[in-house]
Write a structure and sequence with these properties.
single chain; mainly alpha; elongated; 81% helix
Length: 217
């Protein structure tokens, strides 16, 4: 069974290496990976609860301030990723230009010219890479539900130490939730960057072929 699982993992790894060169996408996770990820998050939450209850009373205020700073840092990280994904969405105009440019080249090149086929297929591949990058950026910018912190959470009659421990727990849960959501965005950004790398390499090759064709012509 272990050998079979190892072969399956290698097959999946090689398969998605090929697809990354054709049309990059996020590698889907199987059921076992999803369950393992959920178990890991559950263990982290349980560990957080235990450690929060063990914090000394005199250090609670300091830990609470650090939690507030950590949540702010994670929010800034999410905004940074959003700005990068938004810039990738701006490639739509370039994709349209390549598509129309490829059509014009196909219409003006000689019917049997090999360069016509190179430009047509190269333009199609470039367009596919830009579409993959834009699709990943759009998915990364898709609406997500972030866990929010109640700004007025002080129930009447609640002890100060109990309140601080509860707030630390709420912030810890929010930090974990925001980190998971931001990691999803970073994954989509990685897909977009791979597509752009494919685009740049192919563009360089087409430029070399073009220069060779002009020199030989």
């Amino acid at each position: 069974m272990a050998l079979k699982n190892g072969l399956d993992m290698k097959w999946r790894e090689h398969f998605y290496c090929v697809t990354d060169c054709v049309f990059p996408t996020v590698e889907p996770r199987n059921r076992a990976e999803v369950i393992a990820d959920r178990d890991k998050q559950a263990r982290m939450r349980s560990e957080y609860e235990t450690r929060i209850m063990e914090l000394p009373e005199e250090d609670l205020a300091g830990y609470l301030q650090e939690c507030v700073k950590s949540l702010g840092t994670e929010d800034l990280r999410g905004q940074s990723v959003d700005s990068r994904l938004t810039s990738i969405v701006g490639l739509c105009s370039i994709a349209g230009t390549i598509v129309f440019g490829t059509l014009l080249v196909k219409a003006t090149m000689p019917p049997l010219g090999w360069w016509r086929w190179v430009m047509a297929l190269g333009g199609l591949y470039l367009t596919a890479q830009l579409c993959a990058a834009i699709l990943a950026a759009v998915r990364g910018l898709a609406r997500r539900e972030y866990l929010a912190i109640d700004p007025f959470p002080y129930p009447r009659g609640e002890a100060k130490t109990l309140h601080q421990r509860r707030r630390i727990g709420e912030y810890s849960e929010a930090i974990l939730d925001h980190r998971i959501r931001n990691d999803e965005k970073v994954t989509q950004m990685a897909v977009a960057h791979r597509a752009l790398m494919n685009f740049l390499v192919t563009l360089l090759l087409l430029a070399c072929f073009g220069a060779y064709s002009v020199i030989k012509g």
